[in-house]
Amino acid sequence: MSEKQGTRPFASAPVCSWIKWFTGLQGHNFLCRVPSDYIMDRFNTIGLETLVPNFKLTLDIILDPDVAGVVWNKSVDPTDLETLFGLIHARYILTSSGLEAMCKKYESGEFGMCPKFYCKGQNTLPVGLSDDWGHSNVKLYCPRCRDVFQPNSSCCLLDGAMFGTTFPHMFFMQMPELRPHPPEEKYVCRITRI
Predict the structure, then answer these.
(1) Spatial strand order in the sheet of 139-142
(2) Model confidence pLDDT, tens digit, residues 169-185
(3) For residues 92 and 38, is the Cβ–Cβ distance under 8 A?
(4) Among 47, 98, 135, 159, which one is least packed by beta carbons within 10 Å?
């Protein structure tokens, strides 16, 4: 396709892969880079072809090693790229490599801390309230109090399906040594006499 037939959506992007560019965007630091070989394995994308229009073309753009050189095909909606990558990401973070990548982010506190006082700054993990795209944005799960919260960062705009409903629970099943104990103290409401 010639450049006259399309536009260059990533013209200001540095020479890098679409995956590196997308995960490097502001507000995307909850995401980890999914290796191209994982995405190219057709087993890992089974069932996704019915969820994203122009699946093959969308997948080709995601796998393109030079995003700055991509000539935009108007038949691919940019939200389809985000949707497909997000659904692949949700699968990848449940693999041993994906869990390891997310563990590094968890241990360094990249996802944030629980706002509850008695959780004492417990690191959190991203979680979706639905596995279906477009139902809700990402939330944070605290493994200490086992509650969910709205993120305070720009990552709050990511779709929850990028992480799925099972990610934090699978994370702690695979790494039980990282599961914290519940809070020892709990707030008790009191009314005192004056």
Answers:
(1) 125-127, 139-142, 147-149
(2) 999 999 999 999 999 88
(3) yes
(4) 47
